[in-house]
Design brief:
The chain has 807 residues and is an alpha+beta fold. It is built from 27 helices and 34 strands. Strands 10, 11, 12, 13, 14, 15 and 18 form a seven-stranded mixed sheet that branches. Strands 2-1-26-27 form a four-stranded parallel sheet, covered by helices on one side. A four-stranded antiparallel sheet has the order 6-5-9-19. β21 and β22 form a beta hairpin. α21 packs parallel to α23. The chain binds zinc ion (ZN) (2 copies). The site of one zinc ion has 8 residues, from loops. The site of one zinc ion has 7 residues, from loops.
């Protein structure tokens, strides 16, 4: 038997979908809408297996929803600004736009070769002026409301990328893009006031019940709300006060020293003229250059020096030493902490290292003498050594102490947040120009809306030297002030590319509109996104920023919902031999080569069959062969079926009918729940059953296979559907329904294993309870023999198939 000609078939149906505009949609109030979206790619040159996996998952779902009768919006575009294009331009003495558009053309072709069901008429590229002018418009709206501002601050600086970075872009002390160490610099930068939305960003996480719990937890932690007390420590001999924030005010009587961040503004004053001055200032300078993540990591030894100054604990007037240490960071709380070594492990380790005083103030139920403590006790207990609060449960004391301190004006209950404003200016060319002008007379002047877009000048030189190329483009920099018409200069910083992606899902609703960022009516119909699919690495980057932008756009009346993505799926990575595919490891499998050798359908089938979407999958060259063989096996069903049509009467077999209906039920549920691997396994089983009954009437079963498989392997299924005599695309075939009556009488033949070895077989009704099944199996003579009266360690059940008793 011949292999099916996937090259011809795939080209034919890709052309067909394009010519018949199969995936181009418009608003239709008669149909329920469904917006299926994947995170759009950065045009780096070629699509990789990670894209293939991400986009195949989305494509199957989009097609499934189309066949269920939804009006499905499934768009794609390119997240086209960013550094790689600029670096490539420097290397090749070319222009970032040339490189970017070449990559986009190439990737568009590759995506088309995968047969994805995109509405290509909605394609957007964020580097096009008709897109980024709306970044500028949103920026101006934020500026009007005081949500975009410029300030001098200590910021993250990547020396390799030669630009600043947002806190979210620094991962374990390294640049998210180039993975090099990030430094700190004092610079004047543009920020977006995401902290104005912190309470809503936190509270609305409760609405995201269909997001992976991990992503919600990461955002919650990143926003970092903590309730506690601000305590004011006077300094002996000075008028200044050190403000400290703590969530453990119950331990205030056990504070034995205060620690300042090396960057704390009081450090210089405290040591001035003291013998410690030189040592402390040198230490502060050294620490300032270190990575914040390393400084706060739990497994790194903490360093510190005594300032020679003393603070006064306001609850008992005790004089306690003031230290400077690397583990206290200026941007969290107030840059100062009270140290309670007995009840905080980090303080405990620091105290042991530097031989400082300790005092127990919370007694656990198993009291321990101070001398025998080998770690801090951080749990609950009863107050001791805490004056009038002795004997109280510490949780109760927390409230009482806070109230008492507020009365005495030595403390104040307060809420602390970890989230910081979003640093959005970048010192690079290939991004959206920030629409601001500097005038010597008028100061900072926003570009008027009617002058948008501020277009990136094409004539710029990419030498890799002298910083941002825009600085040297006189025609761009020199401008006139919109207010006084005098001589003025343009802002040369560009926007972080995460701004581009914070609202692109809205642009897809009306991608060609030139009077607004998006059409309100279109957005009201399509948005929110019903299903979003992308990588978990965006948990506190893109996924947080998009929520912020959505809330802002709601506040300015552009949309009427406040969360952009209802359902979120984060797909796992594609590995090769357990490792991430990368150029440096030389283990990249190119989708292109696989498509040429086996076809897009086989690639789609394999990538979904290899593992459930959320977990990592390991690429296996032999398994793609298996996928291809299976498609040929499906293809050959057609020959048999068409031969049969010539025969007259064929018996219908109960077994095949039941299996067909059962498969329809299970595959429908599997696809709905993103269990594509089990969906495929179920289809494979049905194909086996058809071959077992090949001499009977197989028509209904073959049709079911084609439709059920069509969202996964659309090309071959379209072809088979047509060869069966259907005039319309398989996309128009209604999703098959199963008859519950036909699957009810099913019996299950359980394989029973003891310690992983098959020892028996038991037949039961299909709806047997686990309890009953267990009783039945344990009374089976063969099972009893093998168990030999040993206790059961585990009872592992694979639904409807297998039981493994571990003893
Ligand atoms: Zn970098
Ligand atoms: Zn002016």
């Amino acid at each position: 038997m011949e292999r099916y000609n996937f090259r011809e078939i795939e080209k034919k149906w890709q052309d067909f979908w394009q010519h018949t505009r199969s995936f181009n949609v418009s608003m239709d109030s008669a149909k329920p809408k469904y917006y299926c979206l994947e995170m759009f790619p950065y045009p780096s040159g070629k699509i990789h297996m990670g894209h293939v996996r991400n986009y195949t998952i989305a494509d199957v779902y989009a097609r499934f929803k189309m066949m269920q009768g939804f009006n499905v919006l499934h768009p794609i575009g390119f997240d086209a600004f960013g550094q790689p294009a600029e670096n490539a331009a420097i290397k090749n003495k070319s222009h970032p736009s040339l490189w970017t558009y070449r990559c986009i053309d190439f990737m568009r072709q590759e995506l088309k070769h995968m047969g994805f069901s995109y509405d290509w008429e909605r394609e957007v590229s964020t580097c096009a002026p008709d897109y980024y002018r709306w970044n500028q418009w949103i920026f101006l709206k934020m500026y009007e409301r005081g949500l975009a501002y410029k300030k001098e601050a200590i910021v993250n600086w990547c020396p390799s990328c030669e630009t600043t970075l947002a806190n979210e872009e620094v991962i374990d002390g390294k640049c998210w893009r180039c993975k090099k160490d990030v430094e700190q610099k004092d610079l004047e930068q543009w920020f977006l006031k995401i902290t104005a939305y912190q309470e809503r960003l936190l509270n609305d996480l409760d609405k995201l019940i269909n997001w992976p719990g991990r992503v919600v937890a990461m955002q919650k932690n990143w926003i970092g709300k903590s309730e506690g007390v601000e305590i004011y420590f006077k300094i002996k001999g000075l008028d200044d006060v050190i403000t400290v924030f703590t969530t453990r005010v119950d331990t205030i009587f056990g504070a034995t020293y205060v620690v300042l961040a090396p960057e704390h503004p009081l450090v210089k004053k405290l040591v001035s003229g003291k013998t410690q001055e030189k040592e402390v200032m040198e230490f502060a300078q050294k620490v300032a250059k270190e990575s914040k993540v390393v400084r706060s990591a739990s497994d790194v030894k903490k360093e510190g020096v005594f300032t020679g100054a003393y603070a006064i604990n306001p609850v008992n007037q005790e004089e306690i030493p003031i230290w400077v240490a690397d583990y206290v960071l200026m941007e969290y709380g107030s840059g100062a902490v009270m140290a309670v070594p007995t009840h905080d492990q980090r303080d405990f380790l620091f105290t042991k290292e530097h031989k400082l005083a300790m005092r127990i103030v919370i007694q656990s139920s198993k009291p321990q003498p101070l001398a025998e403590m080998n770690e801090a006790y951080e749990g609950d207990g009863v107050q001791v050594n805490s004056a009038q609060f002795d004997g109280l449960a510490n949780q109760e004391a927390k409230k009482k102490i806070a109230e008492w301190m507020e009365q005495k004006k030595i403390g104040k209950r307060t809420v602390n947040w970890r989230l910081r404003d979003w640093l959005v200016s970048r010192q690079r060319y290939w991004g959206t120009p920030i629409p601001m002008i500097y005038c010597d007379k008028c100061g900072l002047v926003p570009v008027p809306e009617h002058d948008l877009p501020v277009v990136l000048p094409e004539k710029a030189e990419f030498t890799g030297e002298g910083g941002n190329p825009l600085l040297k483009v006189k025609e761009f920099v020199n401008t006139t002030c919109p207010k006084c018409k005098g001589v003025a200069r343009r802002e040369t910083d560009t926007m972080a590319t995460f701004i581009d992606s914070s609202w692109y899902f809205l642009r897809y609703c009306s991608p060609k509109l030139d009077t607004a960022a998006f059409d309100k009516k279109e957005a009201a119909y399509w948005i929110p996104v019903d299903q979003y699919i992308g990588g978990i690495e965006h948990a506190v980057l893109h996924l947080l920023y998009s929520r912020f932008f959505t809330k802002f756009l709601k506040d300015v009346g552009m949309i009427n919902f406040d969360e952009p993505f209802i359902n979120l799926l984060t797909q796992g990575m594609v590995l090769k031999e357990g490792e991430v595919m990368s150029k440096s490891k030389g283990n990249i499998v190119e989708p292109d080569g696989i498509i040429k050798n086996y076809g897009a359908d086989a690639l789609r089938l394999y990538i979904l069959f290899a593992a459930p979407p959320e977990i990592e999958m390991n690429w296996d060259d032999r398994a793609i062969e298996g996928a291809f063989r299976f498609l040929n096996r499906v293809w050959r069903l057609l020959d048999t079926q068409n031969l049969k049509l010539k025969e007259k009467t064929l018996e219908k077999r109960k077994e095949l009918i039941r299996k067909t209906h059962l498969t329809i039920k299970e595959v429908s549920e599997d696809i709905q729940g993103f269990k594509f691997n089990t969906a495929i396994a179920n289809i494979m089983e049905l194909v086996n059953t058809i071959y077992q009954n090949i001499d009977s009437d197989i028509e209904e079963a073959v049709k079911a296979v084609i439709i059920l498989l069509s969202s996964i392997c659309p090309h071959v299924c379209e072809e088979m559907w047509q060869l069966l005599g259907n005039k319309e695309s398989v996309l128009k075939a209604p999703w098959p329904k199963f008859d519950p009556a036909l699957i009810q009488e099913e019996k299950i033949n359980w394989v029973v294993q003891v310690n992983g070895k098959v020892r028996s077989n038991i037949e039961t009704p299909h709806d047997i309870s686990e309890e009953k099944l267990k009783t039945l199996i344990l009374s089976d003579e063969r099972v009893k023999t093998w168990m030999n009266n040993q206790p059961i360690k585990k009872f592992i059940l694979v639904p409807k198939k297998l039981v493994n008793i571990v003893i």
